[in-house]
Amino acid sequence: MTDKFTLKKDHLTPFLRKLGKGNRLVVPLKNRHGDTLFTEIDEIDGAPLDLATQPQNSIKQFLLPQREVLSTYQLQDSGSYEFTPVVPVSGPTIFFGVRSCDLSGVLYMDVTFLQGTTDAPYRKKRLDSVLIGLNCNHPFGNCFCNATKSGPFLEYGADLQFTDIGDCYLVEVGRTKGAAIVEKWHQFFTPAEEKDTKKQYQAFLEARGSFSQLVHVDQAIKRLQEDGVPSEIWHQLSARCHDCAGCAYICPTCTCFTITDSPLTADSGERLRSWDACTFSGFTRMAGGHNPVARKTDAIRQRFMHKLCYDVQKHGRPSCVGCGRCVDMCFGGTDILRFINMACEGS
Amino acid sequence: MKTAQLEDYLPRPAQVVEVVTENSQIKSFLLRFVDKKHNAGFSYQPGQFMMVSMPHCGEAPISFSSTPATKGLIRLSVRKAGTLTSAMHELKEGSIIGLRGPYGKSFPMEYLAKRDLLFVAGGIGLAPLTSVINTCLADPEYQGRITILYGSRTPEDIAFMAEIKAWQANAAVECLLTVDLATSEWQGNTGLVTSLFDQVAINPATQSAVVCGPPMMIKAVLSALAEKGFDDHDIITTMERHMKCGVGVCRHCHMDGKLVCVDGPVFTLAQLKELNVMEIS
Ligand SMILES: Cc1cc2nc3c(=O)[nH]c(=O)nc-3n(C[C@H](O)[C@H](O)[C@H](O)COP(=O)(O)OP(=O)(O)OC[C@H]3O[C@@H](n4cnc5c(N)ncnc54)[C@H](O)[C@@H]3O)c2cc1C
Ligand code: SF4
To answer: What CATH number was assigned to the domain covering residues B109-238?
Structure first.
C-alpha cells in the first residue's frame, strides 16, 4: 500500500467534520480581532480556519497547559493529609495544521517529558493526541527553521503530514495513528501520483529558497561549544532583558515550570503546575535570598545555552525550532536571533 | 540510558514518629509512611533527598539524615529557612506530611566503603553527611578511619549533639568541633572549619573527603582540600539549588548544563570543575 495520498481542498472541511466526531479538534483559527491562534473548536462548519498565517501560539499549551492541576489535597480533623491525582480530561485530540516548527517543538517536548523521567500528566495528553502537520510553503518574515533543521518541510514526526500542492493536499502517512485515519476515512483519499509528489518537491524547493532571514545557527552552536561567547554578550543582552518571560511563554520548546499550592479552603487545595521561565529573577533564588545566577550579567545565559549548547550536547540537536516568535515578542531586543547574530560576529 | 520512571508528582502521607530539637533553627523528624506496605519496601541511599509537602506550602527538597541501615524509619533534619520549613517546625508527634521520592544520585557508597573518610560540614550540612557516616559505622565490613570536622556559628548552634557524642565515644571515629563565635564557656576550637585541618591526620592517598555546608564554606573547604593534595575525584560534595520537580524536568536547579536533582546533588570536585559553578569560581 502506498503511504502518499491526495485530498481535494474542497474535501478538507467534510474530512475535518468527520474527524471532529468523537475527537477534540484543535486548528489554527482567525478570531474576531483578526488574530490567528490554535483553538479548540466544536464545529468546523463556518469556523474561520486560517492555514495561511503563522498562529501566534504553538500547540504547547494543549500538552503543557499554562496552569494545570496535578492533584488536590485534603486535610481532615483526624490529622490526615491526602493527595488525590487529577487525570487530564482532554480526551482524544486531533491537532490539524501544525507547521513544521511547532511539530518539531512537540517532538522536543517528548524528549523532555518522556525520556529519562516519564511525566504522567504529559504522557496522558500526548497519548491522546494525533498530530496532522502542514508543511510550510511560504516561510514568514522571522522564520529560520531551515537553519535549525526543523522545517520548512518535515519528513517524520507527524501522524499525517499535509502539503498544499494547488487544488489538493498531498498527504503523507507518518505513524500508525495516521494510517488508521486514512483507512477509516478512505473515501477522502486518492493514492498520490508522480505528478503530485513532483509538485510537492517543487513547493519544497520554493519554500527553501524564500527565507528572508540568513541565520548561522550552526556557527553559533560551534562557537558556544568550543570556547563560548565573550561574557560581554551575556552582559549586554541580560541588561536589556525586562524579565517578562514573553519569549519563554510563546516558545514551542520552553517547558520550564513551577509547582505551587493554591488553597481552596482552610482544609483543601490544589497542587498546580504552571509555566515558569529561566529568565525570571526568582527562578533560581534560594531560600534566604541567595541566587546562583547573577541577574544583571547572566539573566539570559541559561536560555540560550540550554537551547543551543546543552541540548546539542545531550540530544544531538538544538531545541530552538526557528519559529521566529520570540523575535516579534521581545521588546528588549534580546531574542534568539539577536543572540545568534552577536555570537557569530567576529568568529 | 536511564530507565524511564513514571512520575505523577503525587506525595504519600507519612507520619511524624518523633521530633528532636537540634538547636533553635534545626529540628529532626523521624517519619514513617502511613501505608505500611510502602514503608516496609521503601529504600534509599545516603545523599538522596525527598520532596516534602506541607499543607498549602508546596514542596521542598530535604536530604535523608538517617541511614538506610535503620529499616522502616527515615529521618529528615530541617533548618528553618522560609515558609515550608517554618511550618515543619510546628509539626508534632503524630502529624502527617507528604513525601515523594527518593530522588537524586547518592554518594558513591561502594567506593567510600573502601576508603578512610574525612567529613567536613557546616551547620545543617552535617545532615546528609550523618547518613553516610552512620551507614559506614553500621557496615561490619567497613575498615576505614572516620574523621569528622564540624563547624557551627556559636556553641548554641551545634546540631546533632546526640550523634556527635556517640561519635566522640567511638574509638574508630575522630570528631572535632569548631565555632565561629565562642562564648565564655566554650572550651573548644574557634575559627573556620578549615582551621581544624592541622589537628587531624590527613592522608589523601587513602582518604576521601566528603563536604557539605553553606556555599562560602564549601568554597573555602574545597580549595583547602585541593591544597592538601586531595585528588579532585576524592573531594565529594552535595550542592543546593532551588528545586521544584526533583526529577529533571522543571529545570529550576540548573547548574550550567547539569541539573542538580538528577545529575546530583552529589558531585565530585572533578565534575564541578568542568562546569561554570558559583561555589568554585
Ligand atoms: C538536594 C537538596 C537537599 C536539601 N536538604 C536539606 C536538608 O536536609 N535540610 C534542610 O534544612 N534543607 C535542605 N535543603 C534546603 C531546603 O530545600 C530549603 O531550605 C527549602 O526549600 C526552603 O523552603 P522554604 O519554603 O522554607 O523557603 P522559602 O524561601 O519560603 O521558599 C521556598 C522556595 O521558593 C523560592 N522563592 C521564595 N520566594 C520566591 C519568589 N518571590 N519568586 C520565586 N521563588 C521564590 C525560594 O527561593 C525557595 O527556593 C536542601 C536543598 C536541596 C536542593
Ligand atoms: S527560541 Fe524563539 S525562535 Fe526558537 S523556537 Fe523558541 S520562540 Fe521560536
So the answer is: 3.40.50.80
Q: Where are the domains of chain A?
A: 4-66+88-208, 217-258+276-344
Please state which CATH number belongs to domain B6-103: 2.40.30.10
**Residues A46-97: pLDDT tens digits?**
999 999 999 999 999 999 999 999 999 999 988 899 999 998 788 899 999 9
What's the alpha-carbon Rg for chain A, to the nearest Å?
22
Burial of residue A344 (number of CB atoms within 10 Å: 0-12, 13-18, 19+): middle
Please give the distance, rounded to the nearest whole angstrom, from the Cα atom of residue B27 to the centre of ligand 1: 16
Say how far apart CA A175 and CA A178 lie, in whole Å: 5
Q: What number of H helices and E strands is found in chain A?
A: 15, 13
Strand order in the sheet with A268-275: A81-85, A67-75, A268-275, A257-265
Nearest Cα to Cα of residue B78 among B66, B62, B92, B54 = B62
Which residue blocks in chain B are alpha helix, DSSP H?
A: 36-41, 83-88, 109-112, 126-138, 161-168, 215-227, 260-263, 269-273
| Cα distance between residue B161 and residue B166, in whole Å | 9
CA nearest ligand 1 atom 13, residue: B62
Inter-chain contact B5–A80, Cβ cutoff 8 Å? no
Cα B14 from Cα B107, distance rounded (Å): 25
Grid cell 585541593 in the structure block, residue: B226
CA nearest neighbour of A68 among A257, A330, A306: A257
In this prediction, residues A322-328 reach a mean pLDDT of 95
Domain ranges of chain B: 6-103, 109-238
Q: Mapping DSSP to helix (H, G, I), strand (E, B) and coil, where does residue A139 land?
A: coil
Q: What are A143-192's pLDDT values in tens digits?
A: 999 999 999 999 999 999 999 999 999 999 999 999 999 999 999 999 99
pLDDT band at A306; cut points 50, 70, 90: very high
Residue among B20, B22, B29, B62 to mutate when testing ligand 1 (max atoms within 8 A of CB): B62
